[in-house]
Amino acid sequence: MPGYRSLARNRDFTILWVGETVSTLGSRMSLFAFPLVGYALTGSAMVAALAEAAHLAGMSLALLPAGVAVDRVDRRRLMILVSGGGALLYLSLVVAGVLGALTVPHLVVVALLTGAGAGIFGPAQTSAIRTVVPTDDLPAALAQNQAREHVAGLIGAPLGGLLYAVARWLPFAVDVVTYAISCLTLSRIRTSLAPVPREGRRSMRHDLAEGIRFVVARPFFRVLLTWAALVNLVVNALFFAALLRMIEAGHHPAEIGLAETGAALGGLAGAALAPYLIDRLATGRLTVLIAWAQPLPVLPLIWWDGPLAVGGSLFVLMLLNPAGHAGIGAYRMSVTPAELQGRVAAASTFVAMSVMSLAPLLGGLLLERWGGPATIATLAGATVGLALIVTLSRSIRSVPRPRDWAQQPEVALAA
After folding, report:
1. Which of the residues 121, 202, 329, 343 has the least number of beta carbons within 10 Å of its own beta carbon?
2. Which domains does the chain show, CATH number per domain?
3. Sign for the pseudo-dihedral over CA of 140, 7, 149, 227
């Protein structure tokens, strides 16, 4: 895809991508370690879910005010501040672990605050990408970001498991280093990431409402975000239920990490395919295809819960996701005015993530109440119903290929 060649010559995007790939790797190791540490300290599946739920809740709570801040302040400075704070928070877990004083409340507080940091960093990074990457290159840029996430998952989960097997605090120690690398790379971006100048001073409430109104008033955004929120809840509850089943079955942390590698490999292969799929299929139809591709891969998990079965199912499940995220995400960014990028990104992510903090708790609760097979069957069945949301929506189905976006902006912009 031509966008990849252009991105290879884009110095600031390359610096941003490399730095955040390293940081994402560290964060994946920490997130992988959270439920393992929680379960080791208490032996409870619900407590194991608590830290990850706190991380997701912190992210959701920070998103909306973060969107306003991102459109008001220098995004590079904001991202450096968040990365530095994350390094200090994970360092506190390392110190507690070395001293043998690691507790569940400490774990949950750090998870909550680093989640809030992620909620601030996400809209800032999205706005930064929109600033340093031309519109024509946005699908390729977001596909590369998807690849970054899956490379981090590919390496982060098994490496996190191996580090955890050596010492519970070791994944957090590595994350401290990755946050420091993020600070360094962000400081080397040359393009100005200052917000678009605006006349007069407006209240945070006014700015926040403006971003929310933009999203709520448009059918494309309403349907897309409703579907995304429910899919995030169901699919992540399914992921977490599969993880807890392996933990309860006594599989070694490294084996569990290898099972998650299946998802990373599928996502990585999907990221490589994404530019070709996005270029050849209408973006709306591709989104519908991906929605219907979700139920089948998880059906084997009703009967098998070993690392190989889980890894294989996750591989297939994640294969088309990068194309969907990159295609529809790039379209959303392309039709959003520059002065609203931070707020719309934050509002969109907030809606999509608003129920995601409940996913680990939902997976853990269903697993304790109903057992593994019934939990997986119920969640797989729910994905079928969710596919109807985008299938029946004209505003989603009619989004064209990227080359035609400029000629058909009314798909998303019509109120």
Report:
1. 202
2. 2-194+202-413 (1.20.1250.20)
3. negative
Name the token pair of 412. Answer: 């998303």
156 pLDDT tier (thresholds 50, 70, 90): confident
Neighbours of 255 (CB within 10 A): 18
Nearest to 111 by CA among 90, 128, 84: 90
Which tokens in the block code for residue 99?
A: 């001293």
pLDDT-above-90 percentage for the chain: 12
Q: How many CB atoms lie within 10 A of CB 345?
A: 28
Rounded CA separation 173/26 (Å):
9
Q: Give me the chain's average pLDDT, please.
A: 82
**Higher-scoring residue by pLDDT: 368, 204:** 368
Question: pLDDT band at 415, cuts 50/70/90?
Answer: very low
Q: 345 with 126: CB under 8 angstroms?
A: yes
Q: Are 359 and 260 in contact (CB under 8 A)?
A: no
Cβ proximity of 37 and 51 under 8 Å: yes
* 104-371-296 Cα angle (round to 5): 105
The token pair that represents 200 in the structure block: 């007069």
Q: Which amino acid is at 100?
A: G
CB 373 within 8 A of CB 104: no
Give the integer Cα–Cα distance in Å for 331 and 158.
34
The answer to whether the beta carbons of residues 154 and 29 sit under 8 Å apart is no
Tokens coding 277 = 């799929």
* Nearest Cα to Cα of residue 50 among 88, 103, 98: 103
pLDDT digits (tens, 9 = 90+) for 66-115: 888 888 888 889 999 999 999 999 999 999 989 988 888 999 999 999 99
- In which element (H, E) is residue 276 found? helix 253-280
Contact 330, 402 (CB under 8 A): yes
Cβ–Cβ < 8 Å for 257, 32:
yes
